[in-house]
């Protein structure tokens, strides 16, 4: 039984299964990471005669960008190819942080969702994209401040992306200089501990440290998330528990709107059928009630007179 499978590509180390999912959700740099081109241009190959190092050179006019080619790396481009920024030059998994930096937020989100789905589908498991997208959204919900402008933050400060957008909108409306920031990709463990809610963070990991820092900094928890509301037994601020839903006033589509004059009898009404009721609630409740014998007789007399 001392049989070892040595097939496949020599020297290639690929992580599969759940370890690959953990690697993606923790935003770790994978082994044998592929090279992404930061610039566009023509592909050329070069070799240093002294060190024997081989390079992939991207030429764009007078500018050259050189990438050291690993010894065992397999190329995905040929000499003379014209490529765009973000093109994958070698085979292998991508670094999500590098994808975010070069190709942007949407490309990073699509890559993470696609790679996680690839793992599960290889095992015959079908999961809807929305479940993975919820996790990826939380991984990218932070922005690192590059230039605070007229905003209230400090350089390199990590803040919530929604707060960043709302504050910048107010700054622009006031004629002030908005802040500049770049999206930050965080693993799910780090993202959970970096939440604004100390109650939510303490329920996840490092409870003692989180509670100690919250008490030393006199932090307040505004209970805006789901987990902290579940912990204290309140309705979560989503669906029927959202503030917008709680403020809805239900109205019947054909209900009459009573006026103060009609309610207090300050107007003369020719017909009792056209008059507004003294108690609108009682009138609404009686709309679907069956008619009495007296009312049916009155309607029959009217039909006979006509």
From TrEMBL:
GO terms for cellular component: DNA-directed RNA polymerase complex. It comes from hydrothermal vent metagenome. Keywords: DNA-directed RNA polymerase, Nucleotidyltransferase, Transcription, Transferase. Its EC number is 2.7.7.6. CDD domains: RNAP_beta'_C (cd02655). SUPFAM superfamilies: beta and beta-prime subunits of DNA dependent RNA-polymerase. It catalyses: RNA(n) + a ribonucleoside 5'-triphosphate = RNA(n+1) + diphosphate. InterPro entries: DNA-dir_RpoC_beta_prime (IPR045867), RNA_pol_Rpb1_5 (IPR007081). This is DNA-directed RNA polymerase. Residues 295-306 have a biased composition (Acidic residues). It is an enzyme of class 2 (transferase). One of its GO terms (biological process) is DNA-templated transcription.
